[in-house]
Write a structure and sequence with these properties.
Blueprint: H1 2-5, E1 11-14, H2 20-25, E2 29-32, H3 42-56, E3 60-64, H4 66-76, E4 83-87, H5 92-96, H6 100-116, E5 122-126, H7 129-138, E6 145-147, E7 169-173, H8 182-194, E8 200-204, H9 217-226, E9 230-233, H10 238-243, E10 247-250, H11 259-266, E11 271-274, H12 279-282, E12 289-292, H13 297-308, H14 311-328, H15 331-346
Parallel strand pairs: 1-2, 3-4, 4-5, 5-6, 7-8, 7-10, 8-9, 10-11, 11-12
Length: about 350
């Protein structure tokens, strides 16, 4: 929308789902484009992108997420005069998966990424220094890397509000995936329930059926039946949802820069998250939240208990979170930096 306002002719090619009308209502032309979230048929999808770019003749193509970056960059090899922006929003699966498939294909994908992302008129957006260093080590030219920290938060919409009434609500809002730390969140809740804690532990979000790390619904229902967590499902209004929380938790294994954490910080919520790439960009341990080791439900439960029992600490950390979100993660800063990259490529 900001690019449109700046005078660009903007076209979005994506799967036309529930947000199609929202894109079109903003005055943006939408091209329905199907791309499997799984392996799918790489040759067919790359050819489809080649045909799309040949038809549209773009000056700039902006690919978002790892698979579109990989396939889109392949397709762009046939259009060397066009510029491309590749937003590598977290290198998650390549680096955190312990599966045999990931170990087998990861080196080849890293090599291919390094080659494709070093094209002359290519800029690569990274969201945190860890991902930036990984791409440098893989061979991506430093001159093409640009740091844009997340997708930003509208600090005029996500605003602090008074704490809700007790019991304390600890909220985890995310896609319901194992590698988001859902298992550790549930185990920490179980430990705290055994201490007779009256806190509520709320999961917000849906399983992602296209992701192999998705938590099955029968397990979610079993957790609910056990009364260890409450599962709210998908919520469209994150401002209203975050108002219910006293503490926001995301024990993820790795992130680009998680939007839910900057939204929580903008709303003045104290945060407990893992000391991993992406998460530690938002939370400074002991300042606006607490950092715990990854895959450690014991440390997670202790950190959560610290905030559950201390209202003054919650207030202090929430205030600092709002300050950090306003200065470092506002959507205006993200828009400005992204448009600067477009203008750089057109000069």
């Amino acid at each position: 929308m900001a690019a449109l306002k700046a005078g660009f002719d903007v076209v979005v090619a994506t799967r036309a789902r529930k947000y199609a009308s929202e894109i079109q209502d903003a005055g943006i032309r939408l091209i329905p484009f199907e791309m499997s979230r799984r392996v799918g048929n790489p040759l067919r999808e790359v050819i489809a992108l080649c045909l799309l770019y040949r038809r549209e003749q773009p000056d700039i193509v902006h690919h978002v997420a790892l698979k579109p970056v990989l396939y889109g960059s392949m397709a762009m090899c046939l259009r060397p005069k066009a510029a491309q922006v590749n937003a590598v929003a977290g290198l998650g699966w390549l680096f955190i998966s312990r599966s045999r498939l990931a170990r087998l294909v990861s080196p080849a994908i890293r090599w291919m990424l390094a080659w494709l992302l070093s094209a002359p008129r290519c800029r690569v957006i990274v969201q945190n220094p860890d991902d930036e260093n990984l791409l440098k080590q893989a061979g991506v030219s430093e001159s093409g890397l640009r740091m844009v920290r997340g997708s930003g938060v509208d600090t005029s919409v996500f605003l602090p509000s008074p704490e809700p009434s007790e019991p304390i609500c600890v909220m985890m809002a995310t896609r319901i995936l194992w590698d988001k730390g859902v298992g550790e969140f549930v185990e920490a809740a179980r430990k705290l329930k055994l201490t007779k804690s009256k806190a509520r532990f709320v999961l917000v979000g849906e399983p992602d059926k296209d992701n192999p790390a998705s938590v099955p619904q029968d397990i979610l229902k079993a957790w609910q039946k056990e009364n260890v967590v409450e599962w709210m499902g998908h919520c469209n209004d994150m401002v209203a949802t975050l108002k219910m929380a006293h503490v926001v938790c995301l024990p993820s294994y790795r992130e680009g820069l998680p939007k839910v954490l900057i939204e929580a910080a903008a709303c003045g919520k104290p945060i407990v998250t893992t000391d991993v790439p992406g998460c530690r960009e938002v939370v400074r341990d002991g300042d606006n939240g607490l950092l715990v080791p990854v895959r450690d439900s014991e440390a997670l439960s202790k950190a959560l208990l610290q905030l559950i029992e201390n209202s003054e600490l919650r207030a202090q950390m929430g205030k600092r979170g709002r300050e950090i979100a306003s200065v470092e993660f506002s959507s205006d800063r993200v828009i400005e930096k992204t448009l600067d990259i477009y203008k750089e490529l057109l000069e």
